[in-house]
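S.,

Sequence below, as promised.
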Amino acid sequence: MATNPYFDNFTNTPEQTLIEDLIIESIKIYGHDMIYCPRTVVARDTAFNSDSLSKYEESYSIEMYIKNVEGFEGEGDFLSRFNIQIRDEITFTVANKRFTEAIGDFEGQIRPQEGDILYFPLTEKIYVIKYAEHEAPVFYQMGALQCYDLRCEQWEYSGEELDTGIAAIDNYQELYTIVADANDGVTYDANNNVIIDANTGRPLGVSSAWNPDDVFNDADTFETLGDGFIDFSEADPFSDDGRY
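The prediction came back faster than expected:
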């Protein structure tokens, strides 16, 4: 049996506009002001579909609603074999109309793009969009989609160029850029502090002969303990001089 032709639930433009305006008003009441920075792709790697030379040169203020009500999701903070990693995830909801007005018309984007970043002033952290969900939030209410869900993860800076005009964002480039000094092979961070290799305990970029006068350096002692002891020579540190 066909649906009633006198009730149109999918092309009623006034009702769609009403729902959209109510969603925008709700986000403006319960949401937070965010800074949205679209990504500029410089050299796309077609094999891995990535770009290690991305730029973020524009910033736009827009209100968003935090969909997580019990805190961050994801794996949280955990200790990996290399360092402490933070895998906090958060979901933001933004109205379609407001995204078009505040960002889309200027950037030529029809929707939020994966890889764009968001600065959240409340936590003073930057989050990267991992996936922009355009159907799940309100599945075609009155035949239209009124908002996007942006599933985000805390951003890890990896050499991108930041020139957004927002100091809290642009400072990431200065804080986390590694600078190498060609004079001594030691690797320094942006604050000119020596970076220590967690695996060797030596400055990053320095060979095992580093600082032979160090009173805690026992490499030579182990190498000269005599036959029958494991040979810790630099040439073959793991095979006990070929005996295994």
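The first strand starts at residue 32 and ends at 37.

Coffee later?
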